[in-house]
C-alpha cells in the first residue's frame, strides 16, 4: 500500500450558473468549474474513477455549458502525459453516470467496470429533471436503447462497454481504497477515500460536494435526486474526513483545483 499513487487527470472545464452550483443560494452568474478523473495506481491494479466529459457530446447537447478541453485534457491525452494508454487501465469505476463523469468510458471496452447497482437503471429511466444529467449514454447499450438514443451507440465499443458489476453500500476496491456511499446527488452516488503509506488519506467528495464552500455551507448543487439524502451525505463526508484526518478534495472547485497536482505530479 505504501506505493499507492493518485494522479488527477485534468479533463477541462464547463460553465454553470451560480444558482445551479449553489442550489437556491447562488449568487448567480457564470461559474467555470474543472472536471477531472482520478487514477489510482495500486499494487492490485490501475483503477480509474470517472472518465470526464466528451467534448462533442457537450457541444451537441449542452453547448451552454461552454466546454473547454484541450487534447491533453481528453482521457487518452491525459493518460499519454503519464506514458499510459487506455488499455493499461484495469478497472473503471463510475461515481455516477452524469455526462461529465462517464464521457470517456468508451475508451475502456477491455476494462472491468463497476458502479452502484441503481445507476444504470436510473440512466435508463431518469426522473424528468435528470434528463440532461444522464444525457451521454454511450457507456451503455441498455441505456442508449432505453432512451431511444441509438445514435450514441458506437459500433464495437458500446456493447463491449456495457457490462457493469453493480455494487451497493461502502465497498473496498483495493486495500485502502474505499468507495463511500453518498446518495442524494444521484441515486447511487459514490465518493472515494484513498489511504497511503506515508501521507494522510484523501477523501474525494466527488459530486456530494462540488466545492469546499458547498460542504462548509451544506449547500448542494441544483442537480440531485434527493436533496435531504444529499445533506446527510455531506454530513457523512465531513465526519469521515474528521475521523480519518483526511484531506478533502472537491470535484468542481476551480479555486482549489488550481492548487491540486495534475499532469505527471501525483499524491502518494
Ligand atoms: Zn453529477
From TrEMBL:
Assigned protein family: Belongs to the metallo-beta-lactamase superfamily.
Alphabetical list of Gene3D superfamilies matching this protein: Ribonuclease Z/Hydroxyacylglutathione hydrolase-like
Cofactor(s) this protein cannot do without: Zn(2+)
A GO MF term: hydrolase activity
Name of this chain's protein: N-acyl homoserine lactonase family protein
Species for this entry: Pseudaminobacter soli (ex Li et al. 2025)
Chain ranges of the Metallo-beta-lactamase domain: 34-252
UniProt keyword terms in alphabetical order: Hydrolase, Metal-binding, Zinc
InterPro entries recorded: MBL_superfamily_lactonases, Metallo-B-lactamas, RibonucZ/Hydroxyglut_hydro
Domain of life assignment: Bacteria
Amino acid at each position: 500500500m505504501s506505493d499507492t499513487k493518485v494522479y488527477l487527470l485534468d479533463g477541462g472545464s464547463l460553465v454553470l450558473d451560480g444558482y445551479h452550483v449553489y442550489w437556491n443560494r447562488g449568487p448567480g452568474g457564470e461559474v467555470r468549474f474543472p472536471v477531472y478523473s482520478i487514477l489510482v495506481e495500486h499494487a492490485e491494479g490501475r483503477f480509474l474513477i470517472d472518465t470526464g466529459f466528451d467534448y462533442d457530446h457537450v457541444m451537441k447537447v449542452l453547448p451552454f455549458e461552454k466546454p473547454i478541453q484541450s487534447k491533453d485534457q481528453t482521457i487518452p491525452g491525459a493518460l499519454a502525459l503519464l506514458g499510459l494508454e487506455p488499455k493499461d487501465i484495469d478497472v473503471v469505476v463510475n461515481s455516477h453516470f452524469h455526462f461529465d463523469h462517464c464521457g470517456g468510458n468508451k475508451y475502456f471496452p477491455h476494462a472491468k467496470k463497476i458502479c452502484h447497482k441503481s445507476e444504470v437503471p436510473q440512466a435508463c429511466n431518469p426522473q424528468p429533471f435528470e434528463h440532461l444529467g444522464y444525457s451521454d449514454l454511450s457507456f451503455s447499450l441498455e441505456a442508449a436503447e432505453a432512451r431511444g438514443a441509438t445514435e450514441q451507440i458506437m459500433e464495437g465499443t458500446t456493447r463491449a462497454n456495457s457490462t457493469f458489476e453493480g455494487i451497493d453500500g461502502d465497498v473496498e476496491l483495493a486495500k485502502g481504497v474505499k468507495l463511500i456511499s453518498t446518495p442524494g446527488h444521484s441515486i447511487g452516488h459514490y465518493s472515494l477515500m484513498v489511504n497511503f503509506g506515508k501521507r494522510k488519506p484523501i477523501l474525494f467528495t466527488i459530486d456530494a460536494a462540488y466545492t469546499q464552500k458547498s460542504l462548509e455551507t451544506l449547500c448542494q448543487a441544483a442537480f440531485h435526486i434527493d436533496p435531504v439524502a444529499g445533506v446527510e451525505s455531506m454530513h457523512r463526508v465531513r465526519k469521515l474526513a474528521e475521523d480519518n484526518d483526511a484531506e478533502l478534495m472537491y470535484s468542481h472547485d476551480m479555486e482549489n483545483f488550481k492548487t491540486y497536482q495534475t499532469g505527471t505530479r501525483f499524491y502518494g
